[in-house]
Amino acid sequence: TPGQTYRIAAIPGDGVGAEVVAAGRTVLDALAADSAGAFDFAWTEFPWGCAHHERTGRMMDEDGLDRLADFDALYFGAVGWPTVPDHVSLWGLRLRICQSFDQWANVRPVRFLPGVRGPLRAADEHELDWVVVRENSEGEYAGLGGRNLAGRGPGGEVAVQSALFTEVGCERVMRYAFDLARTRRHRKVSSVTKSNAQQYGMVLWDDVFRRVAADYPDVETESVLVDAMAARFVLRPQDLSVVVASNLNADILSDLGSALAGSLGLAASANLNPERRFPSMFEPVHGSAPDIAGRGVANPIGAVGSAALLLDHLGRPAEAARLERAIAATTAAGVLPRDLGGTATTADVTAALVDHLGDA
Ligand code: NAI
Ligand code: MG
């Protein structure tokens, strides 16, 4: 659509979140400036996070969700700081947004970039590239349970943390995974559970997977237990394409995948509300990295890769691909931040990304 202005809410959050979101905005604005007026971005920044919590006692404003609801997309950094317990900061902002806006599919590509020597590189000359699709609305992160249910006192406390699996929740994320597989070179979906040990929710998951798979006879399938899949990520990743898993399992597997690709700082993610009733949210997989925050050395590639997913969602696949190529050209040229064994700062990498937008 020519002359379109996309209204984006930026929520940098805590720690390196602010540094990498700023980098992503710079790259997106450069892309818009080069679009000959085809599109641009109108940014609104929300200063929510742990510092906001210290000032106000809340992770986000009370009417925060209402204020976010009308944006075309949300661009998120990371949340969490030692001043606020992690379960408070995560539930008070990021999980609150994901759950309220029914962002039920969390899409996390694992991308091996040229010039980055990940642990699998030496052993393998295959093109490695797969996507983890994470069920993002229920499962182990449904928030069901409680502490001290039986009224036991100190020392005798009990806690229950239940997982919730619904047929509807399983089916929609699996159909998303199968539709995604149809757009890829290798049409395959690997379903991950621990249904040998978790005999209720995960057996339902397996049943729904078999039923949905029957509607996609052109897509290869397999069901793998999560521990075996962790080993597969390391030992035989070349036959992965789309990996669909529950909330917790996919969370862990996608961190493993990005570490294998070279660093957690590379990993991008989209929290999608595929029906588009609510805005979707795009964020790097990593957290606020307090150990390196404020030093200008955070790797912005995960945040910029998330910006590419944002462009795709806005119906701009050509621009998304251009951003992906700029990322690959940057790493191929050896402009690597510290987590990838280089010396480039966040600003150096961002400048190289902007330069390489001109390549294509
Ligand atoms: P983390 O992802 O913040 O850091 C893990 C390791 O990766 C650290 O050594 C860090 O320096 C490194 N790292 C992370 N991002 C990087 C980047 N862009 N460039 C270079 N190195 C990078 O995870 P951690 O330390 O477990 O958690 C720190 C805080 O972040 C906690 O409060 C946690 O709750 C929060 N967190 C928030 C998430 C989110 O907002 N989506 C996700 C994960 C953690
Ligand atoms: Mg995680």
From TrEMBL:
- Reaction catalysed? (R)-malate + NAD(+) = pyruvate + CO2 + NADH
Q: Could you tell me the EC number(s) of this protein? A: 1.1.1.83
Q: What is this protein called?
A: D-malate dehydrogenase (decarboxylating)
Q: Which InterPro entries does the UniProt record give? A: ICDH/IPMDH, IsoCit/isopropylmalate_DH_CS, IsoPropMal-DH-like_dom, TTC_DH
Alphabetized PROSITE patterns for the sequence? IDH_IMDH
What keywords sit in the KW lines? Manganese, Metal-binding, NAD, Oxidoreductase
Q: Which cofactors, if any, are listed as required?
A: Mn(2+); Mg(2+)
NCBIfam families to which the protein is assigned, alphabetical: TTC (TIGR02089)
Q: Where is the Isopropylmalate dehydrogenase-like domain?
A: 7-353
Question: Which protein family is named in the record?
Answer: Belongs to the isocitrate and isopropylmalate dehydrogenases family.
Enzyme class comes to oxidoreductase
Residue stretches in coiled coil:
none
